[in-house]
């Protein structure tokens, strides 16, 4: 019996770290990304590449079907909901940017979890779902940590990541009867275009975050569900 994982947003900074961490533990990887012909061969080491636009319902169903079709009865399958609409995240706060970010990060991943849970159970697989949240979904932005000239994390990002926490709590209860666990990983910070001084403080922590993600997705972590797990170097304790 194999362990297989579908990682959305596998092309990003944390996504690449997740791929490496899961591969290092012997998982079979399915890397799901929006189509980009210039980066189509980036993950030659992964066993399966899947085109996935989380704003398109047909692609959500198709991506899940491709992943589950490659699985066998008795396999352990995991979904790591990591993708985010980066353009909407850093746009000026507006109704449009909030809707665009919510559409991918929350609505798209919610629909993906529904298809994933339904198809995994029908195939006879054990399953787990892990959402990637943010410290700013659990607490407000502390603007004093941002150096002069650096824009603080936008409000729409905080709102959408907070919504993920509620979604995880609800899904853990709804899917628990089928033996599916649902948790939320909260990283302290991941490199993504910030100034060098800010990046140095955080980017080296990506492997640690990814290692915890892999642990939470293991078959042996089935007693952990409905939890929001902070991996932030103690940030949330200060």
Q: What's the gist of this structure?
A:
The chain is of the alpha/beta class. It is built from 7 helices and 7 strands.
Please trace the helix and strand order, writing H or E for each element: EHEEHEHHEHEHHE
- Count of individual domains: 1
Q: How big a fraction of the residues is strand? A: 15-25%
Q: Alpha-carbon distance between the termini? A: 43 Å
Compute the number of strand runs. Answer: 7
Mean pLDDT: 86
Round the Cα radius of gyration to an integer and report it. Answer: 17 Å
Helix residue percentage = 40-55%
Can you list the strand order of the major beta sheet?
Answer: 3-2-1-4-5-6-7
Sequence stretches where pLDDT stays below 50 over 5 or more residues:
none
Structural class: alpha/beta
Structure annotation, total helices? 7
Q: CATH H-level name... which superfamily? A: NAD(P)-binding Rossmann-like Domain
CATH architecture: 3-Layer(aba) Sandwich
Mind describing the biggest β-sheet?
7 strands, parallel
Instruction: Label the overall shape.
Output: globular
CATH structural class: Alpha Beta
CATH topology annotation: Rossmann fold
């Amino acid at each position: 019996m194999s362990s297989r994982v579908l990682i959305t947003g596998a092309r990003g900074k944390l996504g690449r770290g997740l791929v490496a961490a899961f591969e290092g533990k012997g998982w079979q990887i399915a890397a799901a990304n929006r189509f980009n012909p210039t980066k189509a061969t980036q993950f030659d080491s992964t066993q399966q590449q899947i085109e996935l636009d989380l704003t398109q319902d047909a692609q959500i169903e198709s991506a899940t079907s491709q992943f589950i079709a490659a699985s066998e009865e008795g396999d352990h399958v995991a979904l790591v909901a990591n993708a985010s609409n980066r353009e909407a995240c850093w746009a000026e706060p507006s109704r449009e940017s909030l809707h665009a970010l919510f559409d991918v990060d929350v609505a798209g991943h919610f629909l993906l979890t529904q298809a994933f849970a339904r198809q995994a159970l029908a195939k006879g697989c054990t399953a787990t779902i892990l959402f990637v949240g943010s410290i700013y979904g659990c607490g407000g932005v502390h603007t004093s940590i941002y150096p002069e000239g650096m824009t603080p994390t936008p409000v729409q990002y905080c709102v959408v990541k907070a919504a993920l926490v509620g979604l995880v709590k609800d899904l853990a209860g709804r899917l628990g009867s089928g033996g599916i666990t649902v948790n939320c990983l909260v990283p302290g910070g991941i490199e993504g275009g910030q100034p060098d001084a800010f990046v140095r403080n955080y980017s080296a922590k990506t492997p640690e975050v990814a290692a915890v993600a892999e642990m939470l997705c293991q078959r042996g972590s089935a007693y952990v569900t409905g939890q929001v797990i902070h991996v932030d170097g103690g940030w949330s304790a200060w």
